[in-house]
# Entry
Amino acid sequence: MTQAVLHQLPATWSEFVQRLGNTPLIPLEVRFGTRRCEVLLKQEEHNPLGSIKDRTAYGLVLDAEARRAGRGPLTVVESTSGNLGGALAAACALRGHTFIAVVDPKMSAENLALMRQYGGCIELVTDADETGNYLNARIARVRQIRARLPWVHWTNQYANPANPRVHYRMTGPELAQQVNGSIDAAFVAVSTGGTLSGVGRYLHERLPGTRVVAVDADGSIALGGTAGPRRLTGIGANRRSTLVTAADYDEIRRPGDATAVATCRWLASQTGLRVGGSSGFVVAACLKYIAAHHEARRVVCLCPDGGIKYADTVYDDGWLAAKVIDPRPAYGWLSAFDVA
Ligand SMILES: Cc1ncc(COP(=O)(O)O)c(C=O)c1O
# Structure
């Protein structure tokens, strides 16, 4: 199997829309003892800018335009430490809008480069809270900008119903159509909760036998729990999601940072597929589920992005040592699984 999706950047809005979604579902046969389970990896890195957030950006930009109908180009602001920044910068530029990204030092070099490429204005905050997170500082900066420039439109990915709506209308139906039948469980990572809310609600309505498993990181309180330091980017949040309701999912799994990293590397060694850090959480949660559920035959892992942006983190031994993340103990557990 080959990997490394290299992104040819969309040059027009119609190219962006045309290349959005319809991401591939890669089937793996996972063996655990004498059992077999079909694991379908939905690879969101095949979106035009490389992640599931391209869909969110599309939904947020169309929502911004609908709210300000007929008033010409917009200036959009958003707080982002990850993939939404690059995606929204592209979507805004391709629609003729100005984009201000409020970012923090955890932003990856790739996403910063994407934002610059599409002419996004970058506002960097550097005040972390006591858990090392910057979300509150980013939101405070957005509010300051809007106090000074009240015409600026805040897409507000953490509270805007347009975020889950695009996943309910696009990601969920696409997934249901691709699996073409029943699945035992779907594993969905959480940050704002937009994907989980939209996809989870759709699957519960249309494929009611599917168990929707929310996957979160250590230290995240997106779905409750206790706030703490978060070492991997993309997954989790240090505020409770207002987009997700209890009816959108059936259970929460938190496989842990070291297990997620080990799973990324294990998957690469078994299949050649390099997934992003949050996909490591998703696949780890899925493997634990398979081990505990003898009846599981067919499941889906929604993989938010690919490994290309994580070469200096998840796939770098020096970074892991600096963050005191030791994947080695998890390899013993992973050795009980085989992939064909
Ligand atoms: C890289 C990445 N993008 C997007 C998402 C989904 O985020 P949201 O809950 O904001 O839809 C995740 C979730 O963990 C993620 O890891």
